[in-house]
Amino acid sequence: MKQGRPFLRSSTREAISGYLFALPYLLFFCMFVVYPVFHGFWLSLHDFNVIDNSSTWMGLANYQTALHDETFWKSLRNTAYFTVLSAPLLVLAGLLLAMGVNREFKLKGLFRLIFFSPHVLSISVVGSLWVWMLQQKYGIIAQALGALGWHNPPNFLFTPTWAMPAVVVTTVWWTVGFNMTMFLAGLQDISQTLYEAAAIDGASAWQQFRNVTLPGLRRVMLFVGVQQVIASFQIFGQVFIMTQGGPYGSTRVVIQYIYENAFKYFKTGYASAMAYLVFLVILILSVIQLRLQPDQGAD
Amino acid sequence: MKRIWISLVSLATVAAVLLTGCGGSSKPTASSPSTSAPEQKTAAAKVSLTYWTPLTGGDGDFMKAMVDKFNSSQDKIFVEINTSVWENYYTKLTTAMGAGEAPDVAIIHMANLPMFTTKNALLPLDDLATKAGFDANDFAAIPWKGSVADGKRVAIPLDVHPLIWFYNQDTFEKAGLIKDGRPQVPTSWAELMTELKTIKDKTGKNPMSVQEAGWTGYREWFSYLYQNGGQLLTDDMKKAAFNSPAGIAALKAQMQIVDNNYTPHGLNSDTLKAAWLAGDIGIQPNGVWNTGGYEQAGMKFFTTPLPQLFQKPAVWANSHTLTLPRNKASNPEKQQAAITFIKWISDNSIMWAKAGQIPARKSVVASADFKAFTHQPTYALNLDAVVYPPATPKLSEVENAIYEQLQGAYAHKSSPEDALKAAEAKVNDILSK
Amino acid sequence: MKQRISVGTILIYVALTIAAILWIFPVLWMYGTSFKPEKDILLSTALIPRPTTLAHYLKVLTEASLPRWFFNSVVTSGLTTTLVIMVDAMAGYAFARVKFPGRDLLFIIVVATLMVPQQVLLVPLYVHIVRLGWINTYTAMAFPRVGLALGVFLMRQFFQGLPRELEEAAYLDGAGRWTLFTRIAVPLAIPAFSALTIFTFLGSWNDFLWPMVSATRENMYTLTVGLANFSGSQQQEYGAWMAAACLASTPVLLVFLLLQRQFVRGITLTGIKG
To answer: What is the domain count for chain A?
Structure first.
């Protein structure tokens, strides 16, 4: 009988087809996400060596060690330093660029393209490009500074005070396009009529910005802001390729330290424990984001 | 539509299954283009070997040339060489070992052997080596003895590569520090400082480099530490021993050069090479492996061993050794081929010497060919003064910890005393686990 | 009434232009250096090299296995993206439309993993893959990404947004669940698919950490990893670095130029919904 049956058909059939549909994904999910999450936790409770698969029970010792590890705390501080330097800069720059580009003029598309294009380059391209540009004597930045009167600038990437700022500059160049795109979408969601109404009321550009743009962007700004903080916290590629955490550990961010412990010193258990501690921090940040996010409407 | 979906899914599944078997399997694939090795895929008699090295410095090309010559000199064994950046090399090697996919032959620095021998990752070579005809007496004593773990031989040393001094010929001539065609070598620290001042005053160049953002700074400090009668770790390798008057004296000596601005600051390997090749540095302490590369760049320079500037003669050194890692694909035939290859490399290590290395084979060092080199004979002397880093499996972590603190001192972020104290604390922490 | 362009607007355009020049300059510099003769690289600051040379490109093409790495990137990213599209679409649809016990709880668990940073998974995945002996296989390089939750989340949000009437009508005509999915839902989801495709492909193509860790043999490196390894091994060979970087970037930039709109839409969709 194929006619006139209710939409909600046999629930068993529904259930089976639901599971079947979800099954392929769930297989990947279990094998490559769920299992590693638990396995990682298991690793963090052991001392595991990759070469001969030997493991020794450590209990919570790895966590205790991490909490007493001066280098671990320093790497957290470095990560925080990077975040404090880069996140506000990236959000602000993204917003400013979006506002600048969000006008109807002929070259709008070109400008958008230019600011976004670094984002499609891989980290190895970006890393080698900026290492070359930052080269102490022959790099274009040193040459430009020389033209401006600052001769013999420091070897930026290899001087403790300057290394992190150099990484920040590289990161801003590389990723600001993403924030700009988010803000552009947000700006376009703000109804034109609001601006027209404000203009009719005699509001200046600044007042329009304060009373129409900013409130309209609130949701996007929160999203971008928290995303940026979470992303900054996980920075790794730039540091690994450009400075390897040096000099004097000034750019060793926490993910770099985890990588070193796992892949350079082969302390996979210890690295896992630190990864879980970092996970905790990011979890807290993500929950804050969810809390701050206004409701997206009923699902 | 349904059919398309099904076919896509099946296609992807089939592809995935095929590709799981594909990719780099343990069989060496001929698809990695090595520019010069001839592709001789002849009959089954040919044994294929994979050979991994961390030689991406100036000496890498010389090793490639040796492998090419070996391959073309006979048709029973084909060796495929694979070179990685030193920083990633041990990660790759360890990963491969864990997966049972280690190469047939691997270069491992002698100081890093413990990391692998404590995990039983290397094949013992005693029988193979004896049958292949290695003569223990023909090898430099320290590395030959040092490639043994638990009484079993695990590696064949290829070379000894200490730190030496490179002298820029033009700068030294201009400073008037050349006597009988050789540079004036200081015999004490005070003499060195005088020489450096002379160079600065007469030529305006940087008299001497201290590599603040690279390993040479650490290796130099290491040498001076031992020259002052100190040592890196206690004899049982359980605690740090370098935070001592000797260690502090060594660091303070380097700081004299840094503080006088006799060296460019923040030099990493890239900028050190650039500065040296541009003639901006008078004396450059660095490893022997740079010699060949500098010669190829057409530089005019002198070399001498690291001079004794303090109480005892001592100089940092390490060795490349050739090992047979354990792996799934290993079998007696491959092992035999591997040791044959290693023997050939060792016998022909005069080719390796071209890179600037000092072969571990005494007969090669004593040969007329070696003596005919311009620079190598000037520093292949007094190998008794070489000091190897202590043989602890945690060496990498220990040295990185010290290296980092030294960087802090060089950058004036901490005093020499504080830097060594911090390093000592960290090292003790590492060794206690 | 035609307004005069205000001073403020001019200033904004000027600032924007300066920013654009600063932004595009590094990329231009990258291409410029790649064609510059070795000596001029160190001595000349001209953007456009005169004379030009192909020596660096030749060096890269003969010394680095760029074609092979490119192939590896294509296979890995292609495999990941194909699987993601198929698998996430089906799962997203199930979560959105099909009632099965435990569905909501399962979805919450899936979404919860959005907050798990990649690094937490890195070490256990690595250990796991090593133990399985899957190092140096496309499977190991491509499959882990397919387990990520973002695509499923996206697809589910999208399918939920589709009006039910079309499906209901088809159902009354006797269509089974699979037909509903393939004939109705999927065709409507093309915009979401293209966004997800681009986002996944780009993410996989530029991925660095996992491909580096899961491939030890040079002939299995992806472009991103091979490039980093190549640059690291060539001290002070700036021309070669830049030539390699250009070779790696040009395909991506070209695709980006052609598919700009989809790129932007992909980023926006995944961002806003995320």
So the answer is: 2
